[in-house]
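pls design
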């Protein structure tokens, strides 16, 4: 069995010839000389979060300017604008880019987020994945990437942790409505992914037991993951969900995700809560 076959054997819950060592592409780039040496010893590379679709926003104008190592980005819509700041140039192991000012500033921004999410047009775009998968060959594995689930997307893309927690407490209906909207739109994305050439799908999340309680997990996370898994498993995809941080508090909930679902995996390691743009 070659390296990729050993990786896929594990993901299919089959017996490999050996347990492969397969870090993320970004992690392996920390030291080119060490990467070359480890590759010679049999290390592979995981190309996670590889896009298989593109998103267009016909009625949203994005304005950007760069000052030093900070990107200033503004989203202009017919019903209002939101702005953010992104710190760039960080080390790969630190996530490369970090949001230092989130777009959501107040209650009027709920309607702007809703407009942006409703206006999104998702289109299949498989060419890059096919090309990268061919280049990687048997030296690793390439997985299709997804956006974070709605709960995590509001936290990591729009609000930041502190503001998100406050909004969840003060405006649970508004937050819940946005989660439902994003969930419905993301089901379209998962149908595109399910029809892609990718066998492995990497769910881009940041689940942490310090932030996500078992109650919140059961309310905002598990039903959504179940729905996405059903879409992917109908097309025989393997669904791997990225979770990092302190997870002991959620061990029973995570166990239930994988107990009855063949092809459902969790990955409790990986990149930090960085802005992926």
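designed seq:
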């Amino acid at each position: 069995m070659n390296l990729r076959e050993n990786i896929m054997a594990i993901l299919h819950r089959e017996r490999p010839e050996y347990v492969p060592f397969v870090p993320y592409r970004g992690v392996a780039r920390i030291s080119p000389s060490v990467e070359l040496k480890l590759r010679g010893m049999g290390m592979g590379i995981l190309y996670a979060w590889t896009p298989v679709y593109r998103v267009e926003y016909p009625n949203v104008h994005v304005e950007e300017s760069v000052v030093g190592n900070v990107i200033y980005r503004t989203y202009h819509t017919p019903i209002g604008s939101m702005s953010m700041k992104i710190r760039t140039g960080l080390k790969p192991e630190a996530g490369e880019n970090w949001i230092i000012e989130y777009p959501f500033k107040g209650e009027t921004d709920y309607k702007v987020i809703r407009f942006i999410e409703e206006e999104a047009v998702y289109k299949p775009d498989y060419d890059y994945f096919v090309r990268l998968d061919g280049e990687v060959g048997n030296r690793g594995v390439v997985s299709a990437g997804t956006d974070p689930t709605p709960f995590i997307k509001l936290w990591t893309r729009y609000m930041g942790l502190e503001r998100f927690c406050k909004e969840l407490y003060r405006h649970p209906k508004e937050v819940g409505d946005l989660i439902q909207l994003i969930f419905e739109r993301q089901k379209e994305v998962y149908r595109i992914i399910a029809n892609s050439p990718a066998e492995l799908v990497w769910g881009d999340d940041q689940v942490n037991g310090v932030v996500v309680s078992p109650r919140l997990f059961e309310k905002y996370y598990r039903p959504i993951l179940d729905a996405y898994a059903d879409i992917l498993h109908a097309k025989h995809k393997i669904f791997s969900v990225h979770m990092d941080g302190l997870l002991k508090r959620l061990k029973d909930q995570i166990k239930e995700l994988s107990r009855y679902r063949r092809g459902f995996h969790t990955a409790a390691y990986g990149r930090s809560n960085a802005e992926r743009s």
